[in-house]
Specification:
The complex is a heterotrimer of chains A (about 280), B (about 400) and C (about 290). By secondary structure, chain A is an alpha/beta fold. Chain A contains eight helices and 15 strands. In chain B, about 35% of the residues lie in helices and about 20% in strands. Classes of the chains: A alpha/beta (about 280), B alpha+beta (about 400), C alpha/beta (about 290).
Chain lengths: ~280, ~400, ~290
Amino acid sequence: MNIYQPQLALVTALTDETHDTRTLRLEFEDEALRDSFDFHAGQFGEYSVFGAGESTFCIASAPTRKGFIECSFKAVGKVTSALREVNVGDTVGFRGPYGNWFPVDEWKGKDVVFIAGGIGLAPVRCVIWNVLDRREEFGDVTIVYGARSVDDLVYKRELEEWASRSDVKIVTTVDPGGETKDWTGEVGYVTPVVEATAPMAQNAVAVLCGPPIVVKLTLPVLDKLGFADEAIFTTLENRMKCGLGKCGRCNIGPVYVCKDGPVFTAAQLKELPAEF
Amino acid sequence: MTDATRETYFISDDDLRALAGDLLSAGTEVIAPVAVDVCASPSAIASSACLRPGVAPVDIEYRALADAAELDLSRGLPVLSLKQYFLPGHEALCCWRQHGTEVEIEAVPTTFAPRVVLAAKSCDSAALAIVDKVMNWDYQDELWNGRREATTIVNLACPVVDESCFCTAVGTAPDDVKGADALLTPVEGGYLMEATTDKGRVLMEAHGARFKAETDTHGAKHRGRQAAEERAAARARVAANLEIDAESVREWIDAHFEDPLLAALGVRCNGCGACSSVCPTCHCFDIVDEEEGIGKGTRRRCWDTCQAPTFTLHASGHNPRDDQHSRYRQRINHKFAIYPLKFGEVLCTGCGRCTRACHAGQDLVEILQAIDIAARRPDAAAAAVAGAEPAGS
Amino acid sequence: MSEVREVARKLLTDGTVRVIVGWEDARRGARPVFVTDPADTERLIFDTRCVHNLVTYLNPRRDNVAELGKIGLVVKGCDAKAVAGLLREAQLTRDDVVLIGVRCGGVLEEAELPKAASLSPENVAPRCYGCDNREPELVDHLLGESQPEPPRPVMTIDERVAALDAQPLEERWAFWTEQFSKCVRCYACRQVCPLCVCERCVAEKSRPQWIEAPPHPRGNLSWNITRALHLAGRCVDCGECERFCPVGIPLSLVNRKLQHIVAERYGYTVSDDPESPAPIGDYRLDDKQEFIK
């Protein structure tokens, strides 16, 4: 099999999350693949629009939801802009799943704290649903999610759904100035909101994804709250082309994000040179 | 096959050419060094080299022979390495056709017709064996593997090109057969040839009439001695250019990411990427889509270089390696620390092409020497640093 | 040579500049050097191997040079034209750099030689013939003794261009097709060019994709033509693009041909006068426009 040849997938639904972020639902054309396709929370794929090229994002749907995959993306580059133009019924390409994953199975019996900023909720959403679909296996579930403004919050419908559940604690926040008149969530940056929320670190893991600045500032706060570096998980998103460890552009020192990542613990990050 | 069981045969100069001819008449592609007369009209206008009396105005290039007479056995270094025949400058990964909302993918072939490389440089064949590792890291790159499997490579022991060669410092040698299937060593009147893999033996057996077994005669002994001397002399010549301890170099790089010796190498570097193009082991690539008419096109990969700022540039504008210092460090780091750590081999065969291609004076021999001294003789390091780094920084 | 070292030492010592960019003698011949310590000025050389146009290090893209501090740059007359080009296009102000001019009688084709050689028709860089800027006016210091005129090469660039022009169209097409087919798209020609100043080169733009990335004939032709045209009337003929080309494409022939066209159509020749406006940025009512049909 030629590892660079994509599978074809039909776009079966699209959701506009914000003015520039969209979620696509994809179903493989190949029926056997549709049934057999499996992946782990945190893995990614190469999504392609034929004529524009391939782009890398995580699989944003949960592995516990079968028959389709979803991806969420911001239209910023050539491929994502082309992906923004596809409609329901169009065909796109997919290669994957690639990379490592969040060790969800190892978290059984623990509290899970999800922290995300902006579109960083996409990789986290996959784990949230993965955990919620197996809710009884875990302790307390806390979600802290922030975006620049109310308009920039992604997965709004799901945020409401999570808020309505009694077995999830969710705090949403927007940056100062990003609130609307009827905003009932917090106003403030993600980092201080995490500090104020003060999730218990004992017997807990934290999943942290977002813009580099959010990750950078929140890590010391988690440390202060008592989370060990080994209990903090995040994903890295260096530029990739192949996703397979061949094309040579995603490495950070000796670590290839596509093969050794994209999921890393804070302990692993601290060992890496600052090239991400 | 160990050295003791290697069987050596003699092949005359004429028979070697005839062997190339036999292969060509049988329809086998033969890739070999060809001396390209850069002064052929009207190209003569192109090169001022043609205007210099006494200078041989030829470029040696690995080419698919059209005729056995083209085979160049002068043992000069081809401008580009053999890499281009395994990882072409650009190649199709798949093609697509769009019919309305439907897409049809046309696979590209991943099996290739058998072909033979004659008179390859050991630094070029060894590079293929090294790159094999990444091309088979968990996922098998079938395009690479297909070409590797289809190709029988016959090396020609190298006399060492110049002071930028350093193959012995990175674990190979001018007469190495790593990545190759047979070796030719020049002797009086022709070559001694020994097969080192089954593919090599198959090639020799198929053309048995062209070879003479080196039986226990006086002539054979003489030729054997001659070949051994020739090979030993070449090894000694290249070893004098550079000697490093690759493991110490790896460890030092790993532990000194921010050391000026490693982190300030980009000042004179133009970031031109010529080093990557000519390098036999640089394998990084880009993947691009090209529309060819309405609703159809080809997804291609093409060579790319870590020396270009766009290599790691995110769509957001963020660039993890945003200056030439960090990009040049990446080149050294990848070759001499990251690859050895991951795959147990240095991603360099000491061909010296990057040094020769760099007209800004980035000199890998000098840089490796400085790192090796820093790693093994830190006291002497300060003196060596002065050469590799811009003065005073 | 001792004059260059002396001036460089003085400029570094009194703090006028933080780094001197000049040439040194290294393992493989002459190469650029960046001297920040006055004691290291002893490393500076100037001889016939000092081929490099160091103005490329003033290019605004060269952040690792800029971060060393104010630059004192050693320039030959031809190099000074490139400085003028950067000034003309507002990529640099005159106070950004101290120019140490050296009187030059021509350079060799190659810098990577163990020793300097005296010039002959066989080894002189062909572009040196007919040099019109041997006493650069733009510089702050002009050092060295008056040099003899560079020798006439066995065949001048103009003669080579003329020889090529004399070929029928099909021959010329075949010639350039063959030459450009060698291109591996490393963009060395762009990277070393002192006047390729674009922050984002057209070759890197993907929306739309003006130039196809793979090194096939289509992509190679569009890249090489675009490069040449973007330098029409700007190219200072330093020959660095050709010297750095790892596959030996004779870019100086393209560049020279364009110089001829610019001279003929706009009466413009590139000089080291930063005030003379280049045709590319200068509209005149009497510009030829018969090509608009």
